[in-house]
Fold SAM-dependent methyltransferase.
Amino acid sequence: MIPTVDERTPEMVIGQLIGELGGSLGVLLTALGNRAGLWTAMAGAGPLSPEEIAGRTALNTILVREWCRAQAAGGYLDYRSDTNSFELPDAVAGALLHGPGAAMVDACAEMLCSQGAEFDEFVTAFRNGGGFGWHRHDERFWHGSDALTKVALPDELISAVLDQVGLAPGSVLDVGSGYGTPTIAIARHFPAARVLGIDYNEASVAHARRAADEAGLADRLRFEVGSATDLPGSGYGLVTFFDSLHDFGDPVGALAQARSVLADDGVVLLVEPAAADRVEDNLTPSGRMFYAVSTLICTPNAVSQVTGQEDAAPLGTQAGEPLLRATAAAAGFGRVRRVDVPAPMNLVLALKP
Ligand SMILES: C[S@@+](CC[C@H](N)C(=O)[O-])C[C@H]1O[C@@H](n2cnc3c(N)ncnc32)[C@H](O)[C@@H]1O
């Protein structure tokens, strides 16, 4: 049981910090196991000695031994002292190799590599309050973020959401399209629609264009550099925000823009990380992760876009439904419907003027 704040001693907090350091390094260890083939080599194999694991992976036995010990201390491997062997439990294999665990952690490790390299700059930006734009990360970050999108928003889920919204739009605008993964899913879902993705980060747009080419969709799927508060075109049947509204400096302005380019019978689809309505209900392991992402990634990007604006109101990554509804209302949307999706990490709203 976690002691209450009043019962804690400084020594206990140091212990907590040490656990935290192990956990943080564990992200890299788990990604290492993924990239070096260690998890795969151990899956279903029963107890194996470091020598046997090294033999299966063509790795250095001493390095493998230390990796195994670290993972056993972290609870991801079982250790048998009588045979000095390590076993990958079925539940861990299920989460890492048959579930999204390994891909998720690997993507985060990629993002952390970029964030580590730019950390001094980030600290300076945090201290001077100017924020830190998405474009200031490097390619590893954008790639890792896209890999997370592929885990969190697989094509089938996007299709299920679009089915629920029940439209057949002639044209679609995806705002904050990143590497274009959801945008491509939209174009596949609506084979007759013209689809445009816009993102302010040139490098992401260039990557998305290549992805559209490779998907064979370039004749009706385009990506352009553009700002959420200055949207191109008009008369869209659908305007989408996949995990992007909370990244914008002016979310009300972005939704008001979306409303202005929407067809009369059009819909805005808002996909945001799921969150409870009140801060106190988000103080959970998942909320902790999302608030950390908010502090280190999304909100600094938003703040970089509002410097000097007195009424700026970035949402944060755990906005919750009431604040999202209020933001939609402030942008002129009178009808807001929660879309049920079989994905507990996502909160999806359909907005109509
Ligand atoms: C979390 S990513 C989501 C990307 C994509 N929708 C996905 O789900 O993979 C947020 C995106 O918003 C973009 N972005 C941030 N501020 C923007 C702005 N003001 N206008 C347009 N795009 C912006 C970033 O470059 C980034 O690609």
